[in-house]
């Protein structure tokens, strides 16, 4: 449907990128961008008979614009891609949903759903600069998982037994089994970091963003 629009932009010498009906046209100044917008909207509506969403159509600096979940910035004279803040909020909301105790899932289903989401998300966004972001997200995700596990143990006796099985000495295990701290706060405690370590969570079947990102990038380079 927008093939003729591509040809028109090429004919006028514009630099642009389009995916389906998402389009960005790059101009050197705000004035040039406003001139471009003034003629391109009538072209789309009067010649192609398509309606332009005026509320989503803006003239703005490229670093503030969201395109397919990413935004752009300049580093050492080179254009770079990063995750848009709204996409990060969407990511965290999805993780909250997948790690919620209220969804009624067992651990295996939760691991499966997380794995599916992580692999899909990383493969989609791996062109962006996400290495540092994924480290932070993984720390938060592991805390969410520890919180789920701590809630599952429920009884003091279960917590006491499981902490000892995971290498915590008897005195500390009893102390933390009886803690009155909330689930989220306990999930950040040294005890759960020492007992439910990152490696143990991996071995139990949990996949983390950073781990999969290394594989995805390696495969794309190969």
Give a written overview of the molecule.
This protein is mainly α and 222 residues long. Helix content is 59%, strand content 10%. The chain has helices spanning 3-11, 30-47, 85-98, 107-125, 131-153, 156-165, 170-177, 183-186, 190-195, 198-203, 209-221; strands spanning 15-19, 22-26, 70-75, 78-83. α4 packs across α11 (209-221) and α6 (156-165) runs antiparallel to α7 (170-177). It starts with a helix and ends with a helix. The relative contact order is 0.08. The mean pLDDT is 92.
Strand order of the largest sheet: 1-2
Alpha-beta classification = mainly alpha
Question: Could you describe the largest sheet, including whether it forms a barrel?
Answer: 2 strands, antiparallel
How much of the polypeptide forms β-strand, as a percent range? 5-15%
Helix percentage: 55-70%
Global mean pLDDT: 92
Sequence of secondary-structure elements: HEEHEEHHHHHHHHH
Radius of gyration: 24 Å
Distance between the termini: 36 Å
Q: Which residues form runs of ≥5 with pLDDT under 50?
A: none
Shape: elongated
Number of strands: 4
Enumerate how many helices there are, as a single number.
11
